[in-house]
Write a structure and sequence with these properties.
alpha/beta
């Protein structure tokens, strides 16, 4: 069954606790938290304090995605705040392999992410240490974009190469295109607008779990 990870980027920022609790009650599996430094991507969100507060209000795993040039500067802080998984970008200016090992040493799920136009080969050196690969299906930084379907081939290639970890996609995922992603090996779907703007989130999640 596909794991559904609502992205709080699409939640109401003035009612974040309410929306996260609603997502848990609706049957979602993870809570996805995008951290943006306004350098790696042209946007800014969220602080470790937000993760710490989320840890207090939900029992769901907190899936934290560091869209940062230098994720090593705050990785430990986010782990201390309660991140259950921590994903860093293969394009980041840091010692990626060492940082992935440090995340795993803390007993957390370590992930590596790539942008839509970054060749998959960029992530291949880190697959031994990354138990999650996040394939961005839109350019990171803003919600509400349309899924770039050419990226689906990267998911298929990862499975063809024998990768057994979680494969996550983020950006433009809907009820209509999720089956295509699942057929190619996706295991975790990050969804924002499609969930938080749904008329009935619980019914939507049930349908998504049936994919």
């Amino acid at each position: 069954m596909i794991k559904i990870a609502p992205s709080i980027l699409a939640a109401d920022p003035l009612n974040l606790e309410r929306d996260v609790i609603a997502a848990e009650k609706a049957g979602c599996d993870w809570i996805h938290v995008d951290i943006m430094d306004a350098h790696f991507v042209p946007n800014l969100a969220y602080s470790p304090d937000v993760v710490r507060r989320l840890r207090e209000v939900t029992s769901l795993p907190l899936d934290v995605h560091l869209m940062m040039d230098h994720p090593e500067t705050l990785a430990e802080t986010f782990l201390d705040a309660g991140a259950d998984s921590l994903t860093i970008h293969a394009e980041a200016d840091t010692d990626i392999k060492t940082l992935l090992k440090e995340i795993r040493a803390r007993g957390r799920l370590a992930g590596v992410a790539i942008r839509p136009h970054t060749p998959l080969k960029t992530a291949l050196p880190y697959l031994e240490d990354a138990k999650l690969v996040l394939v961005m299906t839109v350019e990171p930084g803003f919600g509400g974009q349309k899924l770039d379907e050419h990226v689906i081939g990267k998911i298929r290639t990862l499975r063809d190469l024998g990768y057994k970890g979680q494969i996550e996609a983020d950006g433009g995922i809907t009820e209509h295109n999720l089956p295509m992603l699942a057929e190619n090996g996706l295991t975790v779907a990050v969804m924002g607008t499609a969930l938080f703007h749904a008329e009935d989130m619980e019914a939507c999640v049930r349908r998504l779990h049936d994919v």
